[in-house]
Amino acid sequence: MKARVTVTLKNGVLDPQGKAIEGALKSLGVEGIGNVRQGKVFDIELETQDQDQAEAALKAACEKLLANTVIENYRVEIA
Amino acid sequence: MKSAVIVFPGSNREGDVARALAQAGSKVEKVWHAETELPSGTDLVVLPGGFSYGDYLRCGAIAGRATVMDAVRAHAARGGLVLGICNGFQILCESGLLPGILMRNANLKFICHRQFLRVERTDTAFTRAYDKGQAIDVCVAHGEGNYTADAETLNRLEGEGLVAFRYSDERGQVTTNANRNGSMNSIAGIYSETLNVLGMMPHPENLIEDLIGGTDGRGLFDSLVSSVARAA
User: Fold this and answer.
1) Most CB contacts within 10 A, which of A21, B43, B50, B190?
2) pLDDT class of A17 with cuts at 50, 70, 90
3) Dihedral through CA B69, CA B102, CA B199, CA B192, nearest 10?
């Protein structure tokens, strides 16, 4: 079983890296770019084949380490 | 007075802080992050500066969950003193011992310079050797020192007087110019609710010798040693 965890900054949290990337894209002349926010993606292989167990493990992984819920949201997709 | 300086892979200021503690009169033992217990009789735990785990994931995130941190949390819960400097402050926030988080500096630059701090209160174990409102001359060196917390947390910190230091000018005036990393309310350091845990971005351990530019950092280590002596 495989999963993808996406961690993004919560709305309203200042993202200076995203802003810098947005500025760089604009200075490169890439047309039509609006706001840019940077996040992280984790591709995780799971040992279990059980959907509920997988969801529980991934939730624990996000809450305990992958995301800092003070400033970040996370989304889990199981393939 | 017995201090335990925790060493993580990537810590690099443990020697400097150990020297500052020894100068103030503390015994110092370095403790590896994989230990499950602190040396018996530890009065103060120090999480030193550096780049634990290469700042992977988020600064302090992996160190904040290291084995030894359970012992540090238990020490803090017993009322034991804990000091986190720079990466140590980031680790304290990630471990849940202090609220909020240190984000990338607002100007995206690693900043490294002399910095004045205003001492907000002098009735704690960390600051009794200073005067209230005194501007102390120390150093900063960090890329992620932009203190951020939600409005509720910030109100609580301010309402309960838990801000330890603010970035200021040499007269102790808290100005926008003095706040080079963009921290909310110019916060350079905060206490836990019970005032026994302090996290701060600047490095007091850098300024303990006239030979290298100043001694304003000594007050913090002297305060700790005298506080422990008074409590004994």
Assistant:
1) B190
2) confident
3) -80
- Interchain proximity B104–A16, CB inside 8 Å: yes
Q: CATH no. for residue B7? A: 3.40.50.880
> What's the pLDDT at A36?
95
**Which residues from A are below 8 Å from B95, CB to CB?**
none
Give the minimum alpha-carbon distance from B110 to chain A in angstroms, rounded to a whole number. Answer: 13
ipTM over 0.90: no
Residue A1 burial class via C-beta count within 10 angstroms: exposed 0-12, middle 13-18, buried 19 and up: middle
- Per cent of chain B over pLDDT 70 is 100
Give the domains, in start order, of chain A with CATH numbers: 2-78 (3.30.1280.10)
Return the active site residues of B. Answer: 86, 203, 205
Query: What integer pLDDT is reported at residue B30 of this predicted model?
Result: 98
B101·A65 Cβ contact <8 A: no
Chain centroid to CA B20: how far? 14
Contact A71 B57 (CB under 8 A): no
